[in-house]
Amino acid sequence: MKPLKLIAFFLLNAFFCCYGFSADTDSINFSAPVYGTKIIFPVIKANLYARGLESIVSGIEISSAGYIKNANLSVKAGNLSKSGGMSLLTSPALSKPATPFYNGTFIPKAILSSLPGNTSFNRPFGTYIYGSFNKKSEKKFQKGIFSFFADETGIYSGSFISQFNIKSFKMHLNFITGLFPYDENTFTSYYTKDTLYNTDLYFPEGQHFCSSLQFSLQNKKFSTILTAGFFESPFDTIDDTLRLETKIALNKTQFIFSFSGIRLLGNINFNENNNIVNHFYILTANEHIIKTGIQIIAGIQKSFMLILRTPLLCKAGITASAEKQIFDNTSNIRICTGLQATGFFSRHIFTTTIDFKTSSETELEKLSFSLKNYFYMQKLTPAINLNFLIKQDNNLSEKISFSFITGKKINLKTGIECTLLQTKGDFLPPAFSASIETKISFTNLIITGKINASF
């Protein structure tokens, strides 16, 4: 890189800046500006962001990607995020499907981490190590991945993944474990009694181990993954979770089935303590209390071609989920249905979602409709989205949004949204929001900026 280009690279990178503001009919209030820079070299990457003069985050990465054949070693330090396989320890239960085209997750993920961005101002300082080995041969062992994460809050976690080829199947073995802190649970906190056993659940602050084992098989027509979680409780027991997800593809039809349950093995007491406190809830790695006992998700999707003026590739789907709560006899049920049509120049998605709960009687909680339209033009991609929501108390919410994306090297994304709310039969004043986001791409540089407004 020539000296002039190098100087321009640092100057343009340093001037990356994005502002946010909110507005009402009387005044406009500007929030603290967010600004930062990214520096990218062949082996080193560094991020630095600040919000006003108070919040500053930074991070650096040293990686051998592209320099070692079939292997990679990466080290990161700074205000890092954690993701990937960490969710097995923080949210071991299944998530409710938000779409009828639910596909599940069938390939295990290692613990991942990323450098801070322009919204990462509450992350503690941490370190992360990631290594991978990929053997491109016909032998059974194909890939190995390990990662380790630690931060100043006292979190220490690691993961190990192995991939094997067995005839037409790919098999993965994944192990994730960690030591995580938890705060004191006082008698004034949200959860101090187990309503199933009617026992007090006070415990002082401390640390506990959380672990997860995964086994998966995949080929073109069949995929399954089994996840077993083990969580040390503050009461000298090991609590278990189990999750099974399966997908079968036959011609153009896809079937999905998922199941999860907690405490299926009961109290596992490795310390031979006869004075343990009976409990049914599980404390996860991020101090979340799992209260859902059993979850079941089932879905079917069908792809077909529809010939009108132009051929449309269509997909119809329905997904249903049910979960049984531990602390009462309530069951929550969600049903999602939808139709998706994709043509040469547009894509349209219509979905409906209904939530209701059952105990002594069935009650409707929420009913929503959504229509999303995307249009593909030569240099412009506009989108129009409509959402309609009815809640249990008969409150209505209607949302209309319009957005478009243009350009590749100079990318511009704008959006306008209008929300109408009706409470007890009365419409509230409409709420509007708008945003403009730009991204300018150079050979070794990407500059982005964003402005938000609501009134």
Structure description:
By secondary structure, this protein is mainly beta. It is built from two helices and 32 strands. The protein has helices at about 5-15, 85-90; strands at about 15-20, 20-25, 30, 35-40, 45-50, 55-65, 70-80, 80-85, 110-115, 125-135, 140-150, 155-165, 170-180, 195, 200, 205-220, 220-230, 240-250, 255-260, 280-285, 290, 290-305, 310-325, 330-340, 345-360, 360-375, 380-390, 395-405, 410-425, 425, 430-440, 445-455. Strand 26 (about 360-375) and strand 27 (about 380-390) form a beta hairpin. It is globular and about 55 Å long. Residues about 1-30, about 190 and about 195-200 have low confidence and may be disordered.
Count of beta strands: 32
Low-confidence stretches: 1-30, 188-192, 194-198
Task: Please tally the helical runs, counting DSSP H or I stretches of 4 or more residues.
Answer: 2
Rg estimate, integer Å: 25 Å
First CA to last CA: what distance? 46 Å
What's the topology here?
Blueprint: H1 3-14, E1 17-18, E2 21-23, E3 28-30, E4 34-40, E5 44-51, E6 55-63, E7 71-78, E8 81-84, H2 87-90, E9 111-114, E10 126-134, E11 141-151, E12 156-166, E13 169-182, E14 193-194, E15 199-200, E16 206-218, E17 222-232, E18 238-250, E19 253-262, E20 282-283, E21 289-290, E22 292-307, E23 311-325, E24 331-342, E25 346-358, E26 362-375, E27 380-391, E28 396-406, E29 410-423, E30 426-427, E31 431-441, E32 446-454
Antiparallel strand pairs: 1-4, 2-3, 4-5, 5-6, 6-7, 7-10, 8-9, 10-11, 11-12, 12-13, 13-16, 14-15, 16-17, 17-18, 18-19, 19-22, 20-21, 22-23, 23-24, 24-25, 25-26, 26-27, 27-28, 28-29, 29-30, 29-31, 31-32
